[in-house]
Structures are given as C-alpha cells and as structure tokens.
C-alpha cells in the first residue's frame, strides 16, 4: 500500500496561490492531505477548490483577510476542530483533525513582529496554550503537528544566525519555547531524517534576491510524537515549488495510520 502524503504550506494568501501554481503543484505532488496557513479567506468567500473530497477552514474573525488555516484532504477525518489560543485573538490559527491512530494539528503561529511587540503574547499565551493542547491530545493518541511555526530552532536553520539573535523568529525566548515543545515528547521530523544537512530553508524574504541566493530560514515544520516516528517514512522540503515566500514541506506516512 502506498504511503499517505501530507504537505504543509504557508501560501501567503489562498486566492493568490490559486491564480498562480496551486493546481500545477497538487498535480505534481499529489498530496493526500494538504495543510495550509495564511489562507486569508473563510469557507463562504473562498473560491471553489478542486481535487479534494474534504475541506475545512478556520478563519480570522478578528480581522478580515488575515491569518487563517485550512486542511484539504482525500481522507475523511474522524473529527475536525477549529480552535484559537485565546478568546481575545480569534485569528483562525489552529485546526485539529483526528485520524485512526493520531491527531493532525495544523497551526499558523503568530509572528513576534519586527519590534518584538507580540513576543510576550507569542511565548506566554500562544505557545503555552498550544503546548498544553499537545500534551492533552497525547494522552489519547500521538500527534503530528505541522505548519508555519515562525521560529528557526538552531543556528543551522537560518543563513545568518549571529546577526539575528534579536530578530523575530530567532530570539532566545522563541527558541527556548520551541525546545519546550520538544521536551513535551515531540521530534522535529526533518532533523530526525537530516540532522546535519545545512542550507535547508522554508522561507525567504522577497528582498535582495534572497530566495535566488538561498538566504533563508527554516520555520515550517512537522513535529511528531516519538511513538509516531516509525510510521513516518521521510520528510522533504519542496524548495523548488514557487508561488509563495514559503516552501511546502512533505512527509510520507504509513497508510494504516488512517
């Protein structure tokens, strides 16, 4: 039986990517499950999506056309929940889909912003709440957590670590919070397969030909419960897929997990 292909991708606007290369991408990669972030649409206003049987949106009610997540799937989940980290910021950033042997969590983690004004919320509220969710779900089933997590964990995960210790996405606080995710029983799946492979990035600035020069950051992930790792066959960054400032990331899992 062929493995199931799960892809995560920050599309930087679903309408935009639909006008670009979305269907060329799905035809080439054939994802069975596609987790999207920064969709900026809701189910009522989204254009018709072709090629997937089951479509789920979580959208921002705090600000129209902002943030948002989606799951497109050929496999029907047992359940799907739309969540937010707190009631004051209903930004549509969390979707949880339950399958036979695991929970799939799709998140778009808030950016701490250039002046770090959102760093306290990010660390003390958002990360803490989602980590509690992860721990609670793991008491029932293993989890696979994917999405734009907006942090480069280690110096190998960005081009110029020494120059970015006070930049959003590489502050000590964000990196320590990410380490606490791992201490909760999770594994960075890409680094599990490729622990020392350098120059592997998922986001590039639009400025100064950063993507062409591969001056980037690895901030899009799959994190998995340790007991789920034997069912995961590979994890790849699809850096040749354009259309967004982020690259998709793909894992392949054993079909009996579904």
Give a short synopsis of this structure.
By secondary structure, this protein is of the alpha+beta class. It has a single domain, classed as Endonuclease/exonuclease/phosphatase (Deoxyribonuclease I, Chain A), CATH 3.60.10.10.
Please tally the helical runs, counting DSSP H or I stretches of 4 or more residues: 5
Count of domain modules: 1
Low-confidence stretches: none
CATH hierarchy class name: Alpha Beta
Describe, in plain words, how this protein is organized in 3D.
The chain has helices at residues 14-19, 22-29, 119-138, 172-183, 189-193; strands at 4-10, 33-37, 54-58, 69-73, 79-83, 94-98, 103-108, 143-148, 186-188, 203-204, 216-217, 220-225, 232-237, 249-253. With 258 residues, it is an alpha+beta fold. The protein has one domain: Endonuclease/exonuclease/phosphatase (Deoxyribonuclease I, Chain A, 4-Layer Sandwich), CATH 3.60.10.10. The strands form 3 sheets. It has a 6-stranded mixed sheet with strand order 3-4-2-1-14-13. Strand 6 (94-98) and strand 7 (103-108) form a beta hairpin. Helix 3 packs parallel to helix 4. The longest helix has 20 residues, at 119-138.
């Amino acid at each position: 039986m062929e493995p199931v292909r799960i892809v995560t991708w920050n599309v930087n606007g679903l309408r935009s990517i639909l006008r670009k290369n979305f269907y060329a991408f799905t035809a080439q990669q054939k994802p069975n499950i596609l987790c999207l972030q920064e969709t900026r649409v809701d189910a009522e206003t989204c254009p018709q999506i072709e090629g997937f049987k089951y479509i789920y949106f979580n959208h921002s009610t705090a600000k129209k056309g902002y943030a948002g997540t989606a799951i497109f799937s050929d496999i029907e989940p047992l359940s799907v929940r739309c969540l937010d980290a707190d009631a004051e910021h209903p930004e549509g950033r969390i979707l949880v889909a339950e399958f036979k042997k695991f929970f799939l969590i799709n998140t778009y983690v808030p950016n701490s912003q250039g002046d770090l004004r959102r760093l306290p919320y990010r660390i003390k509220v958002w990360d803490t709440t989602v980590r509690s969710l992860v721990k609670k779900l793991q008491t029932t089933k293993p989890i696979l957590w994917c999405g734009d997590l907006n942090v480069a964990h280690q110096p190998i995960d960005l081009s110029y670590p020494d120059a970015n210790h006070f930049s959003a996405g590489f502050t000590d606080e964000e990196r320590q919070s990410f380490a606490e995710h791992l201490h909760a029983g999770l594994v960075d799946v890409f680094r599990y397969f490729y622990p020392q492979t350098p120059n592997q990035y998922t986001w590039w600035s639009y400025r100064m030909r950063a993507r062409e020069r591969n001056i980037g950051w690895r901030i899009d992930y799959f994190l998995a419960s340790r007991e789920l790792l034997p069912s995961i066959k590979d994890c790849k960054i699809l850096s040749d897929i354009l259309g967004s400032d982020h690259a998709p990331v793909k894992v392949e899992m054993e079909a009996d997990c579904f």
